[in-house]
Recover the amino acids of this structure.
């Protein structure tokens, strides 16, 4: 017996109560029973996003919500700055260009967070910039950008901050209203412990006013239509009903545990993995500003990460992710968001060291699992 | 004890094996296990669509696939004709206008199918027309349009036929290649017996060539990107994984039963409901060209359908749908597609008559349930 353990940075494993709720028979999306679920889910999403504004529900992947944000907030010809620090930063650029926006790319070394001064300089230089597109957590590198400062800067400049919170919301703090974020979005398959297929997006009052000025926002991703619908406890089109039933379960968990405790767990898991990886003798990609839902581990030059990944899967049952773009073959990404605990990670550290050595790497580490586990509990207690 | 029976024209009830498969734990969408599922699903979808072309998979509602069809097949400024015979015909018009197309509306009385001569006349009159947008089955009225003839006509004229098969595919014959349909699409929550959240769309070679000439097809609904992905057993973005696992189950059922037998069952259920409704003394909305997945029943003038629907639900446990747009309050729609059998419908006929009388209608029908059930088996045997 060898259980498969999927520790990828999304999708993430599903808790049993969520899985069972996904198996429920269909209900109709225009009937009172479903409206009650939407109403309950709405409260949970507002708590999760830290906002008083409605959180709109889209039946799409997270990329759909990114497209919705760009097409509803900006008109062709407008200028935006994209913080490009990885694959998902690049995706912002692609989406913005498809929309016909002028894109100022603020390129950041993959593995590093944007420096707020550099963003400030760009905003000074290009006065026509109408918004900043950024990730809270860049899933391709495991970097956490300074969103509070970015939102703050945008507020001062009177421009729109658009934050892809796909691997951040429900994982590390990103309170929309408190930080003054204008548009925050996420997907269902990361911190929320659901299958992919739903995306969530919320707009500040300022952002909503801007959306009202935009023509040709798109038919499927029309945030004004969704905004009007959600106020009536509906979605504009037929939504992914069983995922919404699952979402109700998952959000109940967030409310019962409390966001703060979930963040604590995420932080402690992150410190545990980082400690373990260092003890194994491997290097971390993100040294300073690291996200709390995944950890990117560098492979030594000449050692193909895919070889390690393959042993991890075949021999130890651990499904991890490799690198994307220029990092393909060079890193391993350990996902530890959502329904993942310290024991899942302890086994993962063991499997990582063994697979690394079997793939030709050198590591004589001993006692690293216990020491990493100790860090988990120490971090929990200290926070 | 009173079981709730949902007989709406989508979403539809889910078979147990589908529901249990939806509860499976997550797998990763870029790993071999998932690719195998996609490969298997692809064969099943091609069988369902009656096509040799790839069937593209979108994570969205059916409306998303309608948007994808319009935005990928036509450029702003091009002219299309829309067959508007109900709410979903109107939706084609809205989507086409949002895309900036010139729309020639061919309005058809709600409850009737388009006459092929009238469509032919329109195509003669407006030489600039590049495509026809139509429903196979108009879900708001229960009408079946003559798709084979429409596709044929489009072939002759060298224009693109775009068929919304949302309440037709897997319910009544609509073989894409045989009939020469250029673009056929459907959603997961009708004949396919799945929750909503997935949409499927396939393009003829001619249609694919046209897509290649279109700029700004959209970022999320980019059919060229999806076409390239599916050839590698992938989807362009993270897809609704658990729905795809459920789809594999549902398509297995189609292959095991055989499409012809499923159509037979659908036809027999339709004749059963129509017979029962007539015996109750109620009128059918679609007299001639009726679809096989739902039946729209007229309420006598002065009797509000919502009153009947409410009794059906509260007293008898039957969840049916009302009318949309101008038919609101005037009709009841009985869904009998997907995981619905003749016993479900027998109870529905009983409940319909009783609820109708309790809401103030007059019906002295007797023995109508047996006679309707007899029609079911007679139709099955004769077909």
């Amino acid at each position: 017996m060898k259980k498969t353990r999927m520790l990828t940075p999304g999708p993430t494993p599903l808790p049993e109560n969520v899985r069972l709720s996904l198996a429920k028979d269909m209900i109709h999306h225009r009937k009172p029973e479903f409206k009650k679920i939407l109403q309950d889910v709405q409260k949970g999403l507002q708590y999760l996003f830290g906002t008083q504004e409605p959180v709109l529900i889209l039946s799409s992947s997270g990329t759909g919500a990114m497209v919705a944000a760009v097409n509803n907030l900006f008109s062709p010809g407008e200028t935006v700055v994209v913080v490009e620090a990885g694959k998902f930063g690049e995706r912002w650029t692609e989406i913005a260009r498809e929309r016909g926006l002028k894109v100022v790319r603020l390129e950041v070394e993959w593995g590093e967070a944007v420096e707020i001064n550099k963003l400030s300089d760009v905003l000074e230089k290009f006065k026509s910039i109408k918004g900043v597109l950024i990730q809270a957590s860049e899933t391709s590198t495991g970097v956490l950008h300074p969103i509070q400062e970015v939102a703050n800067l945008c507020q001062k400049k009177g421009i729109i901050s658009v934050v892809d919170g796909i691997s951040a919301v429900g994982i590390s703090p990103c309170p929309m209203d408190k930080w003054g974020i204008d548009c925050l979005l996420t997907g269902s398959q990361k911190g929320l412990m659901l299958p992919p297929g739903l995306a969530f997006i919320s707009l500040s009052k300022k952002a909503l006013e801007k959306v009202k000025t935009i023509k040709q926002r798109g038919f499927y991703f029309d945030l004004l239509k969704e905004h009007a619908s959600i106020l009536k406890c509906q979605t504009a089109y037929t939504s992914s009903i069983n995922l919404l039933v699952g979402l109700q379960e998952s959000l109940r968990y967030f409310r019962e545990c409390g966001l703060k405790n979930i963040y604590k767990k995420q932080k402690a898991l992150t410190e545990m993995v980082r400690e373990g990886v260092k003890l194994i003798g491997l290097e971390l990609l993100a040294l300073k500003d690291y996200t709390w839902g995944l950890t990117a581990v560098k492979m030594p030059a000449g050692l193909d990460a895919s070889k390690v990944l393959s042993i991890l899967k075949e021999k130890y049952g651990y499904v991890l992710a490799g690198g994307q773009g220029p990092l393909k073959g060079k890193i391993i990404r350990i996902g530890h968001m959502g329904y993942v605990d310290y024991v899942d990670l302890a086994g993962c550290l063991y499997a990582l060291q063994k697979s690394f050595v079997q793939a030709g790497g050198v590591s004589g580490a001993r006692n690293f699992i216990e020491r990493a586990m100790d860090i988990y509990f120490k971090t929990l207690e200290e926070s």
